[in-house]
Design a protein that fits this description.
With 225 residues, the chain is an alpha/beta fold. Helix content is 37%, strand content 19%. The strands form three sheets. A four-stranded parallel sheet has the order 2-1-5-6, sandwiched between helices. The protein has a four-stranded parallel sheet with strand order 8-7-9-10. Strands 3-4 form a two-stranded antiparallel sheet. Helix 6 (168-180) crosses helix 7.
Length: 225
């Protein structure tokens, strides 16, 4: 029996963009994508995942393309439930595709790939003292990104550019601004950014560009044997 992969997301994420990265080890028919909130009515999401006192808010893209601020604690609770179901169904690898500050999940049988736990130290080992510039899609993610990249030796520089709303020139200008401030490596840490955006920046600015979802997908693909 061939290896099987489940991709688990919080909201709406165009995961088909990463399928070519997995094709060497698994066919598209053996990849299952589940979204915790992506098929729910946005108003239902806002009711059921409202941020209560003492909880933390994380942003996610909803079915109507709006931004939902949802409870991290409620999302973590329900994601763990989905992981347990997938684990019992016999998937070999479960890839949690999210850049949100969520972690600590458990799978008994499947290999669980958590980018939030794996990607920051991996990027730190890759850049090894270089100055990183991070392009962030929305202001609501800035505090989370600054916390996430504390693992880097040099504090990163940050700029805003949305993968769906910014023009190509606006994205290039965001990267150019980071380079002018001293960045020599750019990081795209949003699931809306894909290889097209990375290639655009590398060609225009002639600097290495890291893409977090590509790093996670390549790692998952190596586990599909």
């Amino acid at each position: 029996m061939s290896a099987s992969l489940a991709i688990l997301t919080i909201g709406v994420v165009p995961v088909k963009e990463i399928f070519p990265l997995l094709a060497e080890h698994v066919s598209e028919e053996q990849i299952t994508h589940l979204s915790l909130l992506g098929k729910m009515d946005p108003e239902e999401v806002r009711r059921e995942y409202a941020v209560d006192a003492g909880e933390h808010a994380i942003p996610t893209r909803l079915r109507d393309d709006s931004l939902g601020m949802v409870s991290r604690e409620k999302v973590e609770r329900d994601l763990q439930g989905v992981i347990e179901v997938l684990d019992n169904q016999g998937y070999d690898v479960i890839l949690l595709m999210s850049t949100a500050d969520i972690r600590g999940f458990v799978a008994r049988n499947a290999i669980l790939v958590e980018p939030q736990r794996i990607i920051p130290p991996l990027v730190a080992s890759i850049v090894d003292g270089h100055q990183v510039g991070v392009i962030v899609p929305i202001p609501e993610l800035m505090a989370q990104q600054k916390k996430k990249w504390q693992v880097l030796e040099n504090e990163p520089y940050y700029a805003l550019a949305h993968p769906y709303l910014a023009t190509e020139q606006e994205l290039i200008e965001a990267g150019k601004g980071l380079i002018e401030r001293g960045a020599d490596v750019l990081m795209l840490d949003c699931l809306g950014f894909h290889q097209y955006h990375r290639d655009l920046l590398q060609k225009a600015l002639d600097v290495p560009v890291l893409l977090s979802n590509v790093l996670a997908a390549r790692l998952a693909s190596e586990l599909l044997v």
